[in-house]
Design goal:
Blueprint lengths: L1 H17 L10 H4 L18 E4 L7 H8 L4 E4 L8 H12 L4 E4 L8 H14 L3 E6 L1 H15 L26 E5 L11 E6 L4 E6 L7 E4 L9 H20 L24 H23 L4 H21 L3 H11 L18 H6 L2 H8 L4 H10 L12 H15 L16 H8 L3 H4 L8 H10 L5
Helix pairs in contact: 3-4, 5-6, 7-8, 7-9, 8-9, 10-15, 12-14, 13-14, 15-17
Length: 465
């Protein structure tokens, strides 16, 4: 009998050890996981992306979408150039056909500033809109996101939601009105992300607002709209896609980013490289390598321009969750401190370094610097961009990727470094000073950087060839 009892007791212990320990079935759950200890670095990542619809001529559906939402007063935002082009007509035809009441704001600034954001916000507040449509590039879409945010939170000060340390970086807890984005460039991916970038004139540097709450309700990806982009706009937009893909793929891994949030609402939009963003980044890079030169050189190449429109979306999904790092962090003062440079093919009345150009000019120096932290990823990127890595050594990954990028840019007649934009060695301290507040992105670099190292990177970017 004693032996039988022992066997039963042993069997019960075995069953207890093997039993399901999930919260629904475990009697010890409340004791064992009452307060899971969180480490200093994050342990999770989150994917957030707008709804996306793609197809030639799909813009005709935007009026139906607004009807389906039951809205009555729509704000249509664009800029002075797009206002005169077929994409704008396509949107307005759809709104009119579907009986949508709308007002147009066409005063968006290309490369917006805090003041141009506030002008759009004021228009949005006065209009009491229940939905928004943004038609244009990243400048238009970012401006529209911001107008929607502050019109939905009218008591907020402008700096409340601006990224720290420039702004207060408060989490967005208000509900925004639905925003439909109709991108006309193939670059920013703003139709997919919860990010809005602007020049903060007081500090002469770019910063922004980053929150999943401001991502568009829907992105209408109509490749017909890309046929109206001039050559340099295609090029500079494409360089933004290139760097979105490269930076998000080589960013600090999500589980090495700190601090670990105490509440998921505090987890940033830019979280570090992760297995899902990696897929989108690599796919976008492959498209850039195959189609960007074609899209630039032949405006009639509908296939190439359509593919780049998709690449912009794919890279947006990737970097919108993984983030970017040094190329973008260093680009913000390059754009913000511009003197007299005015980019070809941009019909604006102010000095302008297009965002994609400001980003790509530092890329050879940046990826030489970051390669030691994840050389296999840098080599993989170089191979996708056309490099022969059959005999390559890991220690040479950064140099190989940098040389591949230089050749790519040289073939596309890109300005020979920051010096060609009017910068000199004397400007480096100001460029470094403008980079330091960009911790939202610079801390995602796989390799930490000192002020002296940033100075070296800017100096190395003065000339490319």
């Amino acid at each position: 009998m004693a032996g039988g009892r022992d066997r039963v007791a042993h069997l019960l212990k075995q069953l207890q050890r093997a039993s399901c320990s999930c919260p629904a079935h475990s009697h010890t759950y409340s004791q064992g996981t009452k307060h899971a200890a969180l480490g200093k670095t994050d342990y999770a990542f989150e994917m957030a992306v707008s709804n996306i619809r793609y197809g030639e001529g799909v813009t005709r559906e935007v009026g139906m979408d607004l009807n389906n939402l039951g809205v009555r007063n729509v704000c249509v935002m664009t800029d002075k150039n797009i206002c005169q082009l077929p994409p704008m007509k396509a949107v307005l035809d759809s709104l009119t056909t579907n009986g949508i009441n709308f007002q147009i704001y066409d005063n968006v600034r290309v490369e917006p500033t805090d003041q141009s954001f506030m002008d759009a916000i004021e228009f949005a507040k006065k209009g009491e809109f229940d939905s928004y449509v943004a038609i244009g590039g990243g400048s238009v879409i970012d401006t529209c996101k911001t107008a929607d945010l502050y019109a939905s939170s009218p008591e907020s000060d402008f700096l409340d939601y601006v990224n720290a340390p420039i702004g207060k970086g408060k989490p967005v807890k208000v509900t925004l009105k639905p925003l439909i984005a109709v991108p006309t460039t193939a670059g920013t991916g703003s139709e997919t992300t919860g990010v809005a970038i602007f020049d903060y004139k007081e500090l002469k540097v770019k910063t922004g607002i980053a929150s999943r709450a401001i991502k568009p309700y829907l992105g209408i990806i109509d490749p017909l709209h890309t046929l109206y982009m001039p050559e340099r706009v295609v090029a500079n937009s494409g360089f933004d896609v290139l760097c979105h893909a490269l930076e998000s793929y080589t960013a600090l891994p999500y589980n090495q980013r700190s601090p670990c949030p105490s509440n998921p609402v505090s987890r940033p939009a830019y979280q570090g490289s992760n297995p899902i963003s990696d897929v989108w980044a690599i796919h976008a890079l492959q498209i850039v390598a195959k189609y960007l030169k074609r899209a630039i050189r032949n405006p009639e190449d509908r296939e190439a321009r359509a593919k780049m429109h998709l690449a912009s979306v794919f890279a947006g999904i990737g970097f919108g969750n993984a983030g970017v790092h040094l190329c973008h962090g260093m680009s913000y003062p390059i754009s913000g401190l511009v003197k007299k440079y005015k980019a070809k093919d941009y019909n604006v009345d102010h000095s302008l370094v297009p965002h994609g150009l400001s980003v790509v000019l530092t890329s050879p120096a940046v990826f030489t610097f970051t390669a030691p932290m994840c050389p296999e990823r840098h080599l993989e990127a170089a191979q996708i961009m056309g490099a022969n890595i059959s005999t390559a050594k890991m220690k040479d990954a950064g140099i190989i990727l940098a040389d591949t990028l230089r050749k790519f840019l040289f073939d596309l007649n890109v300005d020979d470094g920051l010096a060609a934009l009017g910068y000199s060695k004397a400007d480096i301290p100001a460029l470094v000073k403008g980079t330091l507040p960009q911790e939202r992105v610079t801390k995602l670099s796989p390799r930490p950087q000192t002020e002296e190292e940033l100075s070296t990177l800017f100096e190395a970017s003065m000339k490319l060839y």
